Amino acid sequence: RCAGRVEVFYNNQWGTVCDDGWDLLGARVVCRQLDCGAALSAPGDAQFGRGADVIWLDEINCTGFESALSECKARMWGENNCHHGEDAGVVCSGNPCSFYSSLCVQWSRIAPVRLVDGPGRCAGRVEVLRDKQWGTVCDDGWDFLDAAVVCRQLDCG
User: Fold this and answer.
1) Nearest Cα to 1, choosing from 52, 24, 35?
2) Which cysteines link up through disulfide bonds (predicted)?
3) pLDDT digits (tens, 9 = 90+) for 79-101
4) pTM of this structure
């Protein structure tokens, strides 16, 4: 789950990232966002296979300190001069979150998450988006590491 083709969820659709400008700094952001440890490499040329849908990001330029790939500079969403033979990939060192975590899903398909019915955007009941529908997360096996994944994904510290 900590190595593969980089895909992002935008406008209710998964899409790939072009390898134009893709480097270890971008990989570092992805590894941090997915709680997968250090970035080891940032392969391009569709090393992990070609995507099939839209190419969302091109000419991405990260400093390495962003908390999410969406914070990196890039062309406008969906604007690109790429093809899927240029899909970006990442190899991270490992997975610091608990292996059986309810939120530790296949890394390229991490679910959009939100918190509802709380006092603010960083507290509340956890819900995830799947098949265009929001649903709650069961607390069986839920622990502090799972909460840390949610907080990181929402940029809530």
Assistant:
1) 35
2) 18-82, 31-92, 62-72
3) 999 999 999 999 988 755 433 34
4) 0.59
